[in-house]
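ok so I'm stuck.
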Amino acid sequence: MPNTEASKAIVNPATIAEDHIHVVAAIIWRQPYRQQFLITQRQKGKHLEDYWEFPGGKLEKKESPWQGLQRELREEVNIQPNRASPFMQVYYRYPDRNILLDTWLVDEYEGEIEPREQQAIMWIDITRADEYRFPPADIPIIEAIRNSGRAGT
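replied:
not stuck anymore, here's the structure
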């Protein structure tokens, strides 16, 4: 079933509003078989509470996306990414904020994944992604993973 809210997303935007919030997120495949990727559940009291999402968060001032990704993954799921590559960006205008979601494929990391912010975490297969409620900005990313041919490789 198509998500009409997700159809408002702009993938790899050429220009965006100045008042946006820059967010980094990681696509982390479960090793060694890469059949499942990691999602985390947003906490109560936060924007889009209880939705599932890719681990990550807001960039701090003067922080590059790579620095922000490293910091957020340490803080949120206790890993240190060593190698990652940009996957895609999605710009989305929610009623109360504008988000630039900058996603990265994390190919190599150190540490054991564990929740560090009392959030639920789960490994899911891309074929089951429709069973979870994702924010509208994440839907084009899910679709791109599904259609990329990289899922599970």
